[in-house]
Specification:
The model is unreliable at 1-6 and 8-17 (pLDDT under 50). The longest helix has 29 residues, at 2-30. Helix 1 packs parallel to helix 10 (266-281) and helix 2 (47-63) packs across helix 10 (266-281). The chain has helices at 2-30, 47-63, 78-85, 100-106, 114-117, 142-151, 166-178, 190-198, 209-217, 266-281, 283-292, 303-324, and strands spanning 36-40, 67-71, 93-97, 118-126, 129-134, 157-161, 183-187, 205-208, 221-226, 241-242, 255-261, 301-302. It has 329 residues and is α/β, with parallel strands linked by helices. 36% of the residues are buried.
Length: 329
């Protein structure tokens, strides 16, 4: 009886293995049979929410079925990640991400290890980050600011949203790479950061281009350095330097892309990826990039290259957060 049972198990396993390619191909042939769900692990109305919804409207034209966007913004992206992780592997749920998901893994904020449980589909865009000072600041150039920071470690204050988040990493990662220290002050909202800079509570202002440039145009902020390879041809940035140009190899900004839970058949992923790629080339998306000022840095990256970039960025995050005492070896 035991041997008969073993033979049945072997035959069953062989049949499953033999049918797997057929089932996978059939799933791809019929995919998508219904609407697909895009998980946005951020609150409604946020920049990432707006981007994801606009992109989904473009991509669904090429997918052939609706892409329904759902917000799960609790616990700083952990709620959304948990929801997407709980989906089946038929490919009807995928998720938008930013560097916040890598940070949550590094900070051990969830039992779900992001890179172990998800795989990339397509990275779409980068935000470019700038650093400046209030118009009445004594610092007229980045070199002056850097020289002061080197002579007075930790005295200068720079602000952002939440300790241990992306703003914190950008501010301190830039300083870490440049070889100096300043003090990061967390606030609850970007509006509070702006008010603190203009009110003299903060010495240094950091923000992405679309938020930073209006502050320059209004005369409130003097731009000093853009975290990029070069300075874009924008009149308001005359006199600003690029981090790479002054020997600081740090160009981190936010970025956005799409991932899916591991285990989805490759044939299904290919269909979804194809729709996302076609959306990237669509004129409507190109106009989005112009409107959101994300066309100043090439953000497009396909799955294999993006997976490598995840690991590189995770390691960089680790080094900076370790130096700040946020994590331990």
């Amino acid at each position: 009886m035991k041997k008969l049972f073993e033979r049945i198990c072997v035959v069953t396993l062989a049949l499953v293995l033999a049918l797997a390619p057929v089932l996978s191909a059939e799933a791809a042939t019929n995919y998508p049979r219904r609407a697909v769900e895009l998980v946005i692990p951020f609150g409604a109305g946020s920049a990432s929410d707006t981007f994801a919804r606009q992109y989904a409207q473009i991509a669904e034209k090429y997918l052939g079925k609706p892409i329904n966007c759902v917000n799960y913004g609790g616990a700083g992206t952990v709620e959304g990640m948990t929801y997407a992780w709980g989906a089946d592997t038929e490919g009807y749920t995928f998720m938008e991400i930013t560097p916040s998901l890598l940070i949550k893994e590094l900070m051990n904020a969830s039992d779900i290890k992001f890179r172990a449980e998800f795989e990339p589909l397509l990275k779409v865009q980068n935000d470019v980050q700038l650093i400046g000072v209030a118009a009445n600041s004594p610092f007229q150039s980045f070199e002056e600011l850097k020289a002061y920071a080197l002579e007075h470690p930790g005295e200068l204050k720079i602000g952002g949203i939440s300790p241990g988040g992306l703003d914190d990493y950008i501010a301190n990662g830039f300083a870490y790479t440049a070889g100096f220290q300043w003090t990061y002050v967390p606030y609850k909202a970007g509006s509070e950061v702006k008010a603190a800079v203009l009110g003299g509570e903060l010495d240094v202002y950091q923000d992405k281009m679309i938020n930073f440039l209006p502050m320059v145009q209004s005369g409130d902020i003097r731009p000093l350095v853009i975290l990029s390879d070069s300075v874009p041809d924008i009149p308001e940035l005359a006199g600003c330097v690029a981090s790479k140009e002054v020997g600081i190899d740090f160009t981190q900004g936010s970025w956005r892309g799409f991932v899916i839970k591991k285990g989805v058949p490759q044939e299904v992923k290919d269909i979804l990826i194809d729709a996302l790629k076609k959306a990237y080339e669509d004129p409507a998306y190109k106009q989005m990039e112009i409107d959101q000022m994300t066309n100043l840095s090439v953000g497009y990256m396909e799955a294999d290259d993006w997976a490598v970039a995840w690991d590189e960025e995770y390691n960089a995050l680790h080094d900076v957060f370790l130096s700040l005492g946020y994590i331990e070896e």
